[in-house]
Amino acid sequence: MTGSPSRVYVARLAGLPVYDPNGDQVGKVRDVVAMMRQGTQPPRVLGLVVEVFTRRRIFLPMTRVTNVDVGHVTTTGLVNMRRFEQRPTEVLVLGEMLDRTVTVLETGATAVVFDMAMEQWRTRDWVLSKVAVREGGKRFRRRGQSHVFDWADVSGFAQVEEGQGATHILAAFESMKAADLAAVLHDLSPKRRKEIAAALEDERLADVLEELPEDDQVEILAGLDTERAADVLEEMSPDDAADLIAELPTETAEALLTLMEPDEAEDVRRLLTYEERTAGGLMTSEPVILPADATVADALAHVRNADLSPALAAMIYVCRPPLETPTGRFIGIGHIQRLLREPPSELVSAVLDTDLDGLRPDDSLTTVSKYLATYNLVAAPVLDDEGRLLGAVTVDDVLDHLLPDDWRESDQHGDNDSQEVDHDAS
Fold it and tell me: CB within 8 A of 123, min separation 6: which ones?
């Protein structure tokens, strides 16, 4: 481990790239795996949880880590690509130990853990040697102070803490995309998922829920009070909210819909009337809709909205008023790639694709897939019998239904990809 610092603070490892000896990136650090020991012995650090490019999380033993430097981690190269599964004797330092309330043995003061330091002993073993804490009780001279203690100088990690906070784990994962944070939550215990969900802002939690398997979505939503659950559903895209509500007991679903804003609830109720694996069941009711007198500049301004998925931002839909779905008569679609080649003052109606008939809400998933493939589209309009726009189907939602139900958590490579190191090597 030549060149590594003698002490590494774990929260600073979150998201760091992991490189092989050739300088090629293997993945990113998502957590640190440790094993608790008896008495005052500091926990032994077994390895890192690394997210590789298939979004699978693998275990990288510390024996395969050759360097932990500012800004990156280096490994020997060969790693086991089998999905990481946490064992009962193991703890995830970021996921489970940050935000714990501990007691300083010398003074009896309580404090909250915001980071931990690991270091390599002369035996070459890595251990969690230091605990960084903040705030605490009256016995600290000034609340909010930060202190770093030896592992043996604090207690409280052995007990299960109810109502553990999530401030510091969220700070460590602040820059993560919603899909990556969803993967972190999926790998944690139900208790920890509930605590982290409670600490997330409504909009951020909505984004994360959209990336989670249905079982996790239902579990997290059930852990929220009813009013907050309704607020989070309002922040979700209508199609995702409808999919989630469809998994709930009828009484619970109706209670949440009643608490939602009427306009938001109306969109969701309409989507719930369609069969799941149809164009109507797959579509979102909030694509980018513009009037015929809109300019190219107007269109480009609308698709710059950061809340739009890439598929939704790839196309605009031009309709007669009203511009809320179901709209007035559908006129045509504008491909953003085409609009980028036009003068900003040009009317979108002059560069529309009017040859596509659009999908019908009862078209099957197979029909939708063939439609997108035939016309090389990432999104498509869904029209009713009167030619009004009901919504748009995007390729990401189609793939979500074509893939197996557990695609978010299943391995994307077989055991043949496993190299000479496995989870037992530590």
Answer: none
**Residue 412 has what pLDDT?**
41
C-beta separation of 16 from 31 below 8 A: no
For 204-263, write each residue's pLDDT tens digit: 999 999 999 999 999 999 999 999 999 999 999 999 999 999 999 999 999 999 999 999
**Inter-residue contact 330 to 387 (CB < 8 Å):** yes
pTM above 0.70, yes or no: yes
pLDDT of res. 162: 87
Domain boundary assignment for the chain: 7-86, 95-155, 201-273, 289-402
In CATH terms, 7-86 corresponds, of 3.90.230.10, 3.40.50.2300, 2.30.30.240, 3.30.70.980, to 2.30.30.240
Among 140, 132, 150, 136, smallest CA distance to 10 is for 132
The half-sphere exposure of 31 on its side-chain side, counting CA atoms within 13 A, is 27
Q: Which residues pair with 379 in a beta bridge?
A: 394
3: tokens are 């060149």
What region does 387 belong to: left with phi over 0, alpha with psi -120 to 50, or beta? Answer: left
- Its CATH architecture, for the domain 201-273, is Alpha Horseshoe (1.25)
What CATH number should be reported for the domain whose range is 289-402? 3.10.580.10
Q: Where are the beta strands (DSSP E) in 70-176?
A: 72-75, 90-92, 101-104, 110-120, 126-134, 146-150, 154-155
Spans of the chain below 50 pLDDT: 1-3, 138, 411-426
Q: How far is CA 113 from CA 10, 99, 181, 194, in A?
A: 12, 5, 21, 19
